[in-house]
Design goal:
two-stranded antiparallel ribbon; single chain; 401 residues
Amino acid sequence: MKKLTYFIKITRYDYPEWAQLTIIFLFVFFAFNMLSFSFAQNTSRDSITAETNQIGAINNYLPLSEYTYAGHENYSLDGSLPITVFDSPETNLIDSINDFVPLSQFTYAGQQRYTLDGSLPRAVTEIKSTNLAILSGLYLGTMVGLHIYQHNAWWKDQRRGFHFEEDWVSALQADKSGHAYGGYMASYLMSEGLMASGFDWNDATLWGAVFGCVYQTYVEVNDGFAKEWGFSPSDWYFDALGPLFFLAQHHVEALQNITPKWQYIPTTWYSQPQIVRPATVFDDYNSSSFYWSLNVYNILPEKLKPYWLPWLNIAVGYGANAVDAVSDPNEPPDQLSQRRYIVCLDYDLVKLLPDGGPFWNWFRQSLDLIKFPAPSFEFSNGITRFRLFYPFHLHLGSLKF
């Protein structure tokens, strides 16, 4: 298929490319944080009234009709209203109970969710300045590190005018799954950081999805300035799909029974064709498979649930073999490539792994976005294969599985 290429001439600058891209990213990042902070401040002011700040919640006080002795009204030493909740500095710190999401509602697919710092999820935004500063620095450093990593692998010495280049045929569309998963993961990690910084659950989810889409777009724009790449419209559609699905899960609980997962195991570990061009972990599609994991237990009728393990899921996946395995420029790209369709068992790590401290619980929850080896059927090139720990090949005498 012939690639469609469009060119847009853009005036070059004298300073280095990495400096231009870093400045653009810093501007977007800090603009995002300032908008988020302003939005959070307005939400907080609108949600807490002056009366609540002065006298606390009405439920903290005992009605005078109940504050009696032998049927007569009782009196406190200082004439104050009798309280039912001790008005301590700790109580002032957590405000009213209405400022927090009940843990019974803070769930994913019916399971308890956990925050990065172990704090209660907020229903009303109240910025934690220290957390916000620490996490902003951490996220900024991570983004700069990722940019340097990707720049050296993809964009170094590739500078040219911005242009579009559709690459739907690339990697037999395995890269499109990667774009969607990358947007989803970026959205998840940012929303978790925002919640730990004091953003309420709804705002953190929304802004997390916005960040996921913005970051993926930023990477795609950089591709648009590279000679061998180009801004691919189909890539960007899948970039946006991941954050949109992340946001949809927040509002449609049924979608939480489907979890996107990524499996990355280098091909050198199980003797498959290796990628021949310089690659990052993110575009080594020979070593990657992308899955949708279905929470079977949740969707089973109640009478069938006793017969199914709560932590056992079923997943369907997609990948490709021998992507870019031919280096001859006279040959068509991916001529030896083969699609891989996988149906397999999967684990719900939140249910399978033991409960622990706040950070461990959050890590266990996040680890569930990674696919681990499990019994699988692979359908590729008209051949069906069974692997006990996909994608590894195990040999027991004449048996291969």
